[in-house]
Structure formats: C-alpha cells, structure tokens
C-alpha cells in the first residue's frame, strides 16, 4: 500500500462484549481482532461508508451510529506496510443485538469469522484489537 486509506469502522457493544472480525497475520504469526468496516469511497461520508459496509459484510442495517474518534493506523500486515485514517463509530443494530453472544457470524463477501468478544479479554492483550487504541475507547 503506497497511499493512505480512509476507512470507517463500527463497534457494536453489548453486555460487556464487542462484535469484531477474527483474523491472523501469517507473516507475523499473530491472531487478532479487527473492528468491522472498510474503505470510504469517493463522494461518500464516513457514516454512509460504515452503513454500507455493515450491509455488505453482515447483511444488516445500523439503527444508530455515534462517532467516537478519528485515528491513524500505521501497521504491517502480511509483511506489507499500511496506513489508514480510521473513523471509529459506536453502533447499534437490532439485528446484531439478536445474535447470541456465543454465536459466530461470517463476513458475507469473504467468510472471515465475526464474534462477540469480551472486552475484558481484549484488555488482557492475548489477542489485540485493531486499529490500535480501540480497547481504551470501550
């Protein structure tokens, strides 16, 4: 990646858990969680992008969104450098609230697992939540 990517990500929170995508970086040999969302397209606001991404990735509409912060995420994934400006939102959805805490969903267009993760487990640092700094917001 040779350019800065603007993204919008959402944090659905319920009963001390946050819904996040489970991933891994084979080059570094780590497992992690990532906030759900994706790129902001030209002519689209961060909120519009977030709502579109949740529809595309989980097939659900968001009932409410609240901007928490905008942060930079400079990282390495699969041995390649990346740089994102992340618009981070607290989100709610009746659809997601009906998903049991022990259930695993899948990202519709790629199959990555999504699950409710106890926020306290993220504070322990066993598996980080990206972009960095989100655990402190929760």
UniProtKB/TrEMBL annotation:
Q: Which cofactor does it need?
A: Mg(2+)
Q: Per its UniProt record, what Pfam families does this chain match? A: NUDIX
Q: Looking at the keywords, is Hydrolase present?
A: yes
Alphabetized UniProt keyword annotations: Hydrolase
Show the Gene3D superfamilies listed in the entry.
Nucleoside Triphosphate Pyrophosphohydrolase (3.90.79.10)
Q: Which InterPro entries match?
A: NUDIX_hydrolase-like_dom_sf (IPR015797), NUDIX_hydrolase_CS (IPR020084), NUDIX_hydrolase_dom (IPR000086)
Q: Which GO terms describe its molecular function?
A: hydrolase activity
Q: What is this protein called?
A: Nudix hydrolase domain-containing protein
């Amino acid at each position: 990646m040779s350019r800065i990517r603007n993204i919008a990500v959402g944090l659905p929170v319920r009963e001390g858990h946050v819904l996040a995508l489970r991933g891994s970086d084979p080059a570094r040999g780590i497992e992690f969680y990532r906030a759900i969302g994706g790129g902001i397209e030209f002519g689209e606001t961060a909120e519009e992008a977030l709502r579109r991404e949740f529809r595309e990735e989980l097939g659900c509409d968001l009932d409410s969104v609240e901007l928490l912060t905008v942060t930079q995420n400079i990282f390495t994934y699969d041995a390649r450098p990346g740089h994102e400006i992340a618009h981070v939102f607290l989100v709610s959805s009746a659809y997601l609230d009906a998903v049991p805490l022990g259930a695993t969903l899948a990202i519709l267009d790629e199959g990555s697992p999504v699950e409710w993760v106890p926020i306290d487990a993220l504070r322990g640092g066993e598996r980080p939540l990206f972009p960095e700094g989100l655990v402190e917001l929760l």
